[in-house]
Amino acid sequence: MFSDNLLQTANVIILKLSTEGKIIYFNPYPERLTGYLLDEVKGKDWFEIFTPKYAYKSIKKEFQKTLHDINIQGNINPIVIKNNDELLIEWHNTNFKDELGDVTSFLSIGMDITKLKNSEIALKGAVRAYKILSAVNLSVSRAKSENTILQEVVDAIVTQGEYSFASVYYIKNSAKKYLSYKVSSGIDKSFFCEKEISIEDIKNATSPSVKAINTSTILICKDINESCISKEWKDKLVSKNYISTISLPLFDKNRVFGVLNIYSRYKENFNQEELKLLEDVAEDFAYGILALRNSIEHEKHALELRKSLEQYIQTIAMTLESRDPYTAGHQRRVSELAVAIAKELKLTSEQIDGIHFASIIHDLGKIRIPAEILSKPGKLSDIEFKLIQIHAQAGYDIIKDVQFPWPIADMILQHHEKIDGSGYPQGLKGNQIMLEAKIITVADIVEAMSSHRPYRAALGIDIAIKEIQRGRGIQYDEDAVDACIKLFKERKFKFMDK
Predict the structure, then answer these.
(1) DSSP category for residue 472
(2) What is the largest CA-CA distance in the chain?
(3) Given strand 86-97, what is the order of strands in its sheet?
(4) DSSP states of 154-182 as a string?
(5) No. of helices (H) and no. of strands (E), the chain
(6) 411 falls in which pLDDT band (50, 70, 90)?
(7) 91 and 75 Cβ atoms separated by less than 8 Å
(8) Where are the beta strands (DSSP E) in 193-327?
(9) Cα 380 from chain centroid (whole Å)
(10) CB–CB of 139/156 below 8 Å?
(11) 3-state secondary structure of 269
(12) CA-CA distance, 205 to 199, in Å (whole number)?
C-alpha cells in the first residue's frame, strides 16, 4: 500500500494493529515522536502503552467500533509518549478484510496536532482576556463612580471573557481586619459572596481570595481538585462544576487593597498568554479605581491603554509566529510598508495607528489553516486554495468583538477585496472597501511577491511593482499604488528585516 520511501520519510504515524489492538507495525516517525522503538513494543497492546489512563476505556471502545465500520473513520485522541508527555493526534482509520468479509487488521494514519491545538488555545485565551482588558479600559475612561467601574468590570469578565463567575473583595481596616464583599457577576451570587471574611480566615487561607491576599501574589488553580485551598472551598466550587480559578490582588503601589476573583468551568483557562493579559486587567482595574479616587487626569491612562493594545497585538503576533514564521515575518513587513504608504498619503495619526495594528495581524485567520497547507511547497489544489481563502473571514470572526479604537476587524476582513469586485470574501467594489484595507492590500501584494515563499523563490520588487501597476485603478486603489511606487522609486524604501 505504501512505498518504502514513504514509510521511511513520512512525518505522520502509519500504524497497523491486529483486531485485538496488538501492534503489528509502525513506521520510523512514531519512533522519533514517542521514544518507543518498534522492536520493543511490537506484539504488545497499543492502547495499554500509548493511551492515557483516564481515556483508556473510551478510546478502546472507539477502536472496537471502528473495526466493524465499513467507512473510514476519523477522530482526535491523546497519546502518552515515553517521557510521560501527552500529545494530541488526529487519526484517519480504516480496516482490512479477508475474502469472507471478516476484519483481519486495522490501519490508522495519525498526525501530531499538539502545537496547532496549543496555539488555538493560547490565541483563544489571549483574545478572551483582551476583550476584558478593553472593556476595563473603556469603563475606567468614562465611569463617574467607583461602584460603576467595579460592576462593569465583573460583568465584562463574565460576558466578554466568557468566564462563569467573577467577584471583587476589598480589605477593610477597623478594630478587626477583614475582607468585605463589593460586587459580583455570574450565576449563584449569594453562594459565593459572604459579606465579610475575618482575619482568622485570611490566616488560614480558606478561600482563593484570602490566599492571594495573604501572599500578595496571584493564585491560579488550573485544577481545583489539586489546588492548595481548603477542602471546604474545594467542595463549594466543585459542587458548582467549577474547574479552575484565578485570584488577582489589587495593588495601591506596594499595598494590597483588594482582590479580583475569576472562576471557570474549563481546565485549559489561564494559560501563559491569558495570564499576562489578566495581570494587565488587574493593574488597569486598580489604577482606574485609584485614579478615580484621587481625581487623576485621564491622559496617563490613555497612554497605558495604547501600551496595552500594542502588547495584545504583539501577543497574537507571537502566537502566530510560533506556528508559522513565514506568516509572522510577512505581517511585520506588510505593516512597515502599509504605514509608509499611509504617511505618504498624509492620513491622520489615528488612521496610521489603525493600519499599523491591523496589518501586524492581518493574516490572523491563518491560525485556522493546517500548517501543512500553509507551508506546502507545491501547487495548492482547488480545495486547499478555498481553505486558504477563509482566513480573512476567520480573522474577522476571532477579533470582531474586541473593542479597538479603530475598525481593525473590518480591515482584516477586507484586505483581500479588490475594487473591481474580484476579491474575497464578500466581493466588495470601489468605495465599499475602506481606504485602510485598500492600503494593506497593496502592501500585502508587494511584500508577498518580493519575498521567498515555501512554494517559490522571491520574485523581487520590480515584478511586484509591475503587478500593482497592471492592476492600478482596476483591482488596486490608484492613490495607494502611486504612493507605494513613489516610496520605492524616489524614497528608496527598504524592508527593515530583509
Answers:
(1) B
(2) 88
(3) 23-26, 13-18, 103-112, 86-97, 73-80
(4) HHHHHHTS--SEEEEEEEE-SSS-EEEEE
(5) 22, 11
(6) very high
(7) yes
(8) 196-198, 219-221, 244-252, 255-264
(9) 26
(10) yes
(11) coil
(12) 10
In whole angstroms, give the CA distance from residue 192 to residue 198: 15
Q: Whole-angstrom Cα distance, residue 263 to residue 220?
A: 10
Separation of alpha carbons 101 and 416, rounded Å: 51
Q: How far is CA 428 from the centre of its chain?
A: 28
Assign residue 473 a region: left if phi > 0, alpha if psi is -120 to 50, beta otherwise?
left
229 grid coordinates: 485551598
**Alpha carbon distance 307, 280 (integer Å):** 10
- Number of residues that make up the chain: 498
List pLDDT tens digits, range 424-449: 999 999 999 999 999 999 999 999 99
Phi, psi of 23 (to 5 degrees): -75, 120
DSSP 429: B
Q: How many CB atoms lie within 10 A of CB 254?
A: 6
Cα–Cα dist 32/273, whole Å: 29
- Asked if residue 106 has pLDDT above 60, the reply is yes
Pairing of strands 219-221, 244-252: antiparallel
- Which segments within 187-271 are labelled E, that is strand? 196-198, 219-221, 244-252, 255-264
Q: How many CA atoms lie within 13 A of 313 on its CB side?
A: 24
Give residue for cell 489539586.
226
Question: Which amino acid appears at position 390 of this protein?
Answer: I
Question: Is 318 in a helix, a strand, or coil?
Answer: helix
The cell numbers describing 383, all together, are 480545495
Find residue 476's DSSP bridge partners.
472
ω into 425 cis (within 30 of 0): yes
**Cβ 342 vs Cβ 439: under 8 Å:** yes
Which residue in the block uniquely carries the three cell numbers 485485538? 20
Angle between helices 461-470 and 478-489 (to 10 degrees): 150
Task: Give the pLDDT of residue 3.
Answer: 54
The predicted-structure confidence for 109-161, as pLDDT tens digits, reads as follows 888 888 777 777 777 777 878 788 888 888 877 777 888 889 999 998 888 88
Q: How far is the first Cα of the chain from the last one, in angstroms, to the nearest whole number? A: 45
Which residue in the block uniquely carries the three cell numbers 498624509?
346
**Spatial distance between the Cα atoms of 437 and 423, rounded to a whole number of angstroms:** 12
- Is the model's pTM score more than 0.70? no
